[in-house]
Amino acid sequence: MDRRGHGVSDFGDHRYSIDREYDDVLAVLSRAGDNATLIGHSFGAICCLGAATLTNLPHLVLYEPPLPLHGLIAGRNLAPYCHAMRDGRFDDALEIGLREFIRLPHDHVESIRATTAWSRLASLMSAWPRELEAMDSLGDNVEAYAAIGCPTLLVSGSRSPKHPFRNAVAALCRSLPHACAVDIAGHGHLGLRSAPAVVAQEISRFLSGWSPPASGLNQARTA
Q1: What is d(CA 213, CA 211) in angstroms, rounded to the nearest whole number?
Q2: Domain covering 18-70+140-222 in this structure, CATH number
Q3: For residue 212, what pLDDT is reported?
């Protein structure tokens, strides 16, 4: 699905609220049917988490939801990002976003700059400020998600930084009652792009062979 302000979806007529993101996910699920698996990446994974607290799902898959468990996601870096956007310095803004929000190393940022992914990411930037503010407002605990009772696969990349990605996955794995986690070796937050076949294989394995872990023994492994 194209969330508000992304792809073919416009920003909508109402003031932005992350609760409306949850409602949008629920609306799409209602059309997809009772057996639909909900899969989300990054802020999309946060939207899936929120929606999952409001409905019953057969399965949930989350790739590195950036929860602010050990500090804000944007914080003081949001202002220079917004200044660059207002000044039309879109390359500078995207570099700030990739370096400070997604926390990619310099060489990775430069490698993306040389690919078509750079322009694709640039098309998302106008929606980032409101999403970053929403992320930073979520608080520093995962207690609200402990009520999610469906089987959940938590995916992370071995090269992703602990904050905000790997720490969030670890905290959710401890808190969700029916969760298992997999680490994609050699890849980071953009593993859906750099290792799509590996991620798809893990999702397929989860959907075809998942069984509930014993209480307090949620599973984690490396792919």
Answers
A1: 6
A2: 3.40.50.1820
A3: 54
